[in-house]
Specification:
Elements: H1 6-9, E1 31-33, E2 48-49, H2 51-56, E3 64-65, E4 70-75, E5 97-98, E6 101-106, E7 112-119, E8 126-133, H3 142-156, E9 163-170, H4 183-187, E10 204-211, H5 214-222, H6 236-245, H7 247-250, E11 256-263, E12 288-289, E13 292-293, H8 304-314, E14 316-323, H9 327-331, E15 340-345, H10 352-364, E16 367-371, E17 379-385, E18 399-400, E19 408-416, E20 428-434, E21 441-447, E22 469-472, E23 475-478, E24 482-483, E25 489-490, H11 496-502, E26 516-519, E27 522-525, E28 536-537, E29 543-544, E30 550-551, E31 554-555, E32 560-563, E33 566-569, E34 573-574, E35 580-581, E36 599-602, E37 605-608, H12 627-640, H13 646-652, E38 676-682, E39 688-695, E40 702-711, H14 718-762
Parallel strand pairs: 6-21, 8-9, 8-11, 11-14, 14-15
Antiparallel strand pairs: 1-2, 1-3, 4-6, 5-7, 7-19, 9-10, 12-13, 16-18, 16-20, 17-19, 20-21, 22-23, 24-25, 26-27, 28-29, 30-31, 32-33, 34-35, 36-37, 38-39, 39-40
Length: 787
């Protein structure tokens, strides 16, 4: 808010008029006061604030400029319940979308909302154009498509009484490498004559305009012959573009438009035409002459995005009836094309009727809102209210599904304008419409960026230095030659160099200490404005009541006030930030002493003399010995002559009066009193010494120790210890012998078992003694056989 260039231009800005020197833009709940209620030195943008703040600062309520946004329904024709055709009516105008025109007066940052209603009208007219791939692989599909006309007419009578159908076909561009350009192949690309030759190739051919006569559809489709091409993808995108843009030739009406695309192959898209030397981009215009597409060999295929935008603009809903092997390609188009459905075609297209009917029901049962491009900086949001009463699923509130005939859904549309610096001037237009429908809502946007107070300008106002300027929207527009907030200075006399020198403190480089402006050789300090807590004053604006020290987040600790950068404290406080109480109440300990007698009270807190003591009043000493430990040495030396030497014991422990008792239980009979401590310590001989003493609270010194008792443990029983040790040795020895005997027995058993096993393996038969050698020797005469 505000325009900082006014300091350089030395001109008085006119507030709330965006074409003048300074502006106060409307944003959110910020308002402007058109009353001349500013003081000298305050900027004109300081009139912009919330209404409550301006009223507190003295702006009259009737002078607040506080325009509010609004939504005005310019055309609001009610939605139609039925088209009236089924019962013989003439139909008339059918309205499915309400309202038709809305004007929004938008205050920047403040959204304006309106409701859009949509009703699916009964018996709404439908136009369907069947676009078929007539390449050779689709030959077995033609008979079923021929029967489609009568069957689809019969089926669609259940939906609408006004249904029309059309037919078109496509193959591919008639250039290499998409088709063969040999003469015989151009005449008959299938190279056959029976049962009939193929049709010459073509890019796209419009065969039948939209008609309600199903017999004409069957006759013309039945007379078609398939053609052929070389590559696998087809030129369907060329045909799809022409079927969308040639509205007059196709016969499209301003009703529900369906386009059925039937093929068993993929498609060429932008850039593929370069393979055939076709480099000119598709212009998206109609080029049908004699129902033939004439630019197929001179313009490239259209891009997918180009076709999607054309279908969206022409309100055409697409149904892809494709075979299973290419269905995944066309499924990818669903996220790009508006209102698109994909059905899996059988090998001979016998299920084409089912695909069309199911796709039509799916497309028409869903409403998706869309809008044209918004002006820069504007924001739009949707909140749907569907038939079930709840918000619509997904789509950021733009979508409603499962809508039947006669159902009504609504969408709450909210539009927010940007700040006026980014907002376009003049009326703007946005179109909101459901995808696939021709009806739309025209939204006229009028940003509120100017004040209405300029018409109340007061020329030669006395508020502007006795008529030296005009009071316009609460600010002075000075006459030529006058400057200043209230036109109080003559421009020729207010030399900038002189003024600047007079407004510098001690030859400082900053004018008015950086907290004001030099007006007519005098510092005008910053006051009020958007940060009224930062006030500056003084001859050179050197003083501020917000620059003092803080304590715990509070200036002057909340115990004083800031005067020209220094804290002036209340009588009971001191310090640079008034953080120190001057009294000692916060330092009193439980016994009424200051810091327990162990420290000094400074700035409301105790400073302990002994570093071992701590706490709010020096009452804690974690490292100090307790009363019992402090008197252990004196008790031992006085009662049992242990520890200290007699001389030192007499000097340090003369104050103790001791009484020896025979049993510790006697200590329990001591009368309880304040400071009484019952102690147990261990002497140098290991005996436990029990004693009771009374000690003061200030220091650990005992005034009396009336009872002392010593318990010494009895000596060890030598006989018992000897007997236990001897018995343990004997038991351990016997246990070791038994363990040794057990281990040796197990070892011997294993060795004997192994020995027996070896004997069994070495036993033999007496007839076949392995060391026996026969005494008979047999000699064979080698010459025996010769005789």
């Amino acid at each position: 808010i505000g325009d900082q260039t006014q300091k350089k231009k030395k001109k008085t800005p006119t507030i709330c008029h965006i074409h003048c020197y300074g502006v106060c833009w409307y944003k959110g709940s910020v308002n402007v006061c058109v009353e001349a209620f500013l003081q000298v030195g305050q900027h004109t943008w300081e009139r912009c604030d919330t209404a409550a703040a301006l009223l507190r600062r003295g702006c009259p309520s009737h002078r607040l400029e506080d325009p509010r946004g609004s939504a005005v329904l310019v055309k609001n024709r009610n939605v139609t319940f039925r088209s009236g055709r089924r019962r013989g009516g003439r139909g008339g105008r059918v309205t499915q979308l309400q309202p038709q025109t809305v004007r929004l007066h938008l205050r920047p940052g403040e959204p304006q909302s309106f409701e859009v209603r949509f009703r699916r009208v009964e018996d709404y007219p439908v136009d369907l154009y069947y676009l078929m791939d007539l390449s050779f692989s689709m030959e077995d599909d033609l008979p079923n498509v021929k029967k489609l006309g009568a069957d689809l007419m019969e089926e669609m009578r259940n939906v609408t009484s006004d249904f029309r159908m059309g037919f078109g076909a496509f193959v591919d561009k008639t250039v290499m490498p998409f088709i063969s350009v040999a003469k015989d192949m151009l005449e008959n690309p299938c190279k056959r004559t029976e049962p009939w030759p193929c049709s010459p190739p073509f890019t796209y051919r419009h065969i039948l305009s939209l008609t309600a006569d199903g017999g004409v559809f069957a006759r013309l489709v039945g007379g078609q012959r398939v053609s052929g091409n070389l590559d696998w993808p087809e030129g369907g995108m060329d045909a799809l573009m022409q079927a969308a843009v040639c509205e007059e030739q196709i016969g499209w009406r301003n009703v529900t438009r369906l386009l059925v695309f039937s093929t068993d192959a993929g498609f060429h898209f932008a850039g593929d035409g370069k393979l055939g030397g076709v480099v000119l981009p598709n212009d998206g215009l109609c080029h049908l002459q004699g129902n033939e597409y004439t630019r197929g060999n001179s313009q490239d295929y259209p891009s997918v995005g180009h076709i999607a935008e054309t279908l969206r603009r022409k309100n055409i809903q697409t149904i892809f009836a494709v075979t299973e092997d290419v269905a995944h390609l066309y499924e990818g188009l669903r996220s790009i094309f508006p209102k698109c459905a994909v059905g899996t075609l059988s090998n001979n297209s016998h299920n084409i009727l089912q695909i069309i009917v199911e796709a039509y029901n799916a497309l028409t049962s869903e409403v998706v809102m869309e809008n044209s491009k918004l002006p820069p900086g504007y924001h739009i949001s949707y909140a749907s209210r569907c038939e079930d009463g709840g918000p619509g699923p997904g789509g950021r509130g733009r979508r409603c599904s499962g809508i039947s005939v006669g159902d009504e859904v609504s969408f709450n549309v909210s539009i927010t304008a940007p700040p006026c610096a980014a907002a376009s001037r003049g009326p703007l237009r946005v179109v909101i419409k459901p995808q696939g429908y021709s009806e739309e809502v025209e939204v006229l946007l009028s940003p509120i960026c100017e004040c209405s107070c300029q018409k109340d300008m007061i020329p030669h106002s006395p508020s502007c230095s006795h008529g030296n300027g005009s009071l316009e929207c609460g600010a002075c527009r000075c006459k030529e030659g006058r400057v200043g907030t209230f036109c109080e200075c003559v421009k020729e006399e207010a030399d900038e160099a002189t003024d600047s020198r007079l407004c510098r403190r001690d030859n400082s480089s900053e004018v008015c200490s950086g907290h004001g402006e030099c007006v007519c050789g005098r510092c005008v300090c910053q006051k009020g404005g958007q940060k009224p807590q930062r006030l500056y004053y003084g001859p050179f604006c050197e003083c501020s009541d917000r620059s003092c020290g803080q304590h715990r987040g509070l200036q002057c600790a909340g115990h004083g006030r800031c005067v020209c950068g220094e804290c002036v404290c209340l009588p009971a406080f001191g310090g640079a930030a008034c953080e120190c109480p001057l009294g000692s109440e916060s330092c009193l300990s439980a016994d009424g002493q200051i810091c327990g007698g162990r420290g000094e009270c400074r700035c409301g807190a105790c400073i302990c003399r002994d570093e071992r003591f701590q706490g709010r009043t020096c009452e804690l000493c974690p490292s100090c010995p307790d009363v019992c430990a402090a008197h252990r040495g004196c008790v031992l030396c006085r009662a049992f002559s242990l520890g200290l030497s007699p001389e030192e014991c007499g000097r340090r422990c003369a104050h103790l009066n001791l009484t020896l008792v025979g049993h510790p239980g006697v200590l329990a009979t001591a009368a309880p009193s304040a400071g009484l401590h019952r102690c147990m310590e261990v002497d140098t001989e290991g005996c436990r010494v029990h004693f009771a003493l009374s000690a003061g609270e200030k220091e650990p010194s005992a005034s009396a120790a009336p009872f002392v008792c010593q318990e010494c443990p009895s000596g060890p029983n030598v006989m018992l210890i000897t007997a236990v040790l001897s018995g343990s040795v004997v038991v351990l020895g016997v246990a070791l012998l038994l363990l040794w005997k057990l281990l040796t027995s197990l070892h011997d058993r294993r060795e004997f078992a192994r020995f027996q096993s070896e004997l069994e393996r070495r036993r033999w038969n007496r007839v076949n003694n392995p060391i026996y050698r026969s005494a008979i020797t047999t000699v064979v005469n080698p010459k025996y056989k010769e005789h």
